Amino acid sequence: MLGYAVKTLGMAQSSIASGTTVANIIEMCAIPLIAGFSDRFGRWPFIILGVVMAAVWYPIFFQILLTWDALAIMGGFIVSLGLIQRSDVRSGGSVYSRVFRPASA
Prior knowledge:
Blueprint: H1 2-8, H2 13-41, H3 43-65, H4 70-84, H5 87-90, H6 92-99
Helix pairs in contact: 2-3, 2-4, 3-4
C-alpha cells in the first residue's frame, strides 16, 4: 500500500508512513486480544471473519485512497493493517500446525 500511495497517487511518503506506524502499533496491541478470543471461540471463525472483512473492506479502502485525504487514508491504514489484515493470520499458526503435522523423523 505504501508504494501504491506514494508512487501511483503521488502522496507524501511521511503521511503514509505515519499511518502505517500507527496501524502497526494498534496491530501489536490487538494480537493478544484476538489470540485470546480465538483460544476461547476457536480458530476457524476468526480466520473466516478475517477473510470476509478483508473482502468487504479493501474495495472501500481503495476508494478512500483516491480521495487523497491524508487523515482518511491514515484511518484506512489503521483499519486495514491494524484490525483486518492479520485477523486471520493471528490464529492461523495454531491451525496450520494441526492441519499439517510434521513428519516423524
